[in-house]
Specification:
Layout (H helix, E strand, L loop, with lengths): L2 E5 L3 E2 L5 E8 L7 E7 L6 E7 L2 E4 L7 E6 L4 E6 L8 E8 L6 E4 L3 E5 L2
Parallel strand pairs: 2-11
Antiparallel strand pairs: 1-3, 3-8, 4-5, 4-9, 5-6, 7-8, 9-10, 9-11
Length: 117
């Protein structure tokens, strides 16, 4: 069955970097778009980035700082996060989407990112 497992979240200082991984099983990456979402305490979940084939999309607040990429051999999608800010603190989830314009269907369990000094 479709399964997504996120990893890489941890405590990091402002200005630091992290790379999150989303390991997929039960399907190959060419079948779905993959989106990264995040949910901060007391806030709604928001889409952060999405990759579909060779196209990538980002929410304005992370443009120029975050990069989404995929490795079809490892069947894994990454989110490289640079210049992290305290407001990036959230649980980060990856999810499958039919395309980046469609709602998410299958979700991972999430990984906590905390940006704090």
């Amino acid at each position: 069955q479709v399964q997504l497992v996120e990893s890489g979240g941890e405590l990091v200082q402002p200005g630091g970097s992290l790379r999150l991984s989303c390991a997929a099983s039960g399907f190959t990456l060419d079948l779905y778009a993959i989106g990264w979402f995040r949910q901060a305490p007391g806030k709604e979940r928001e889409g952060v980035a999405c990759i579909s084939g060779g196209s990538t999309y980002y929410v304005d607040s992370v443009k120029g700082r975050f990069t989404i990429s995929g490795d079809n051999v490892k069947n894994t999608v990454y989110l490289q996060m640079n210049s992290l800010k305290p407001e990036d603190t959230a649980v980060y989830y990856c999810a499958t989407r039919k395309t980046c314009n469609y709602p998410a269907k299958y979700w991972g369990q999430g990984t906590q990112v905390t940006v704090s000094s």
